[in-house]
Amino acid sequence: MLIKLDALPIGRQAIIVKVEGEGRVRRRLFDMGVTPGAEVFLRKKAPLGDPLEITLRGYELSLRKDEASLVTIKVKEENK
């Protein structure tokens, strides 16, 4: 199932499929390691949903909701 990163439920993992946006915003995301194929884990969201705290490539990263909405992800299935 493909969704945007800002819609990922807390505590779930996903794989980045696509990073949208243009220019400086897209370059900034790539510089932070938000690239296709990377695995992300949503740690928590602020009370109003902005920012989001994710774990990516072994470190914690905070993203604004508008930045997270540019990232398309594939949610990993939960182990049952």
Structure described in brief:
By secondary structure, the chain is of the alpha+beta class.
How would you describe this protein?
With 80 residues, this protein is of the alpha+beta class. It has two helices and six strands; from the N terminus they run ββαβββαβ. A six-stranded antiparallel β-sheet has the order 1-6-2-3-4-5. Strand 3 (39-45) and strand 4 (52-56) form a beta hairpin. It is globular. The relative contact order is 0.33. The model has no long low-confidence stretch (mean pLDDT 91).
Furnish the topology, listing elements before pairings:
Layout: E1 2-4, E2 13-19, H1 23-31, E3 39-45, E4 52-56, E5 59-63, H2 65-68, E6 71-75
Q: Could you list some keywords that capture this structure?
A:
single chain, 6 strands, SH3 type barrels, six-stranded antiparallel β-sheet, 40% strand, 16% helix, alpha+beta, 80 residues
Please state the overall shape, judged from the principal axes of the Cα atoms.
Answer: globular
Tell me the number of helical segments per DSSP (H or I, 4 or more residues long). 2
Strand order of the largest sheet: 1-6-2-3-4-5
The total domain count is 1
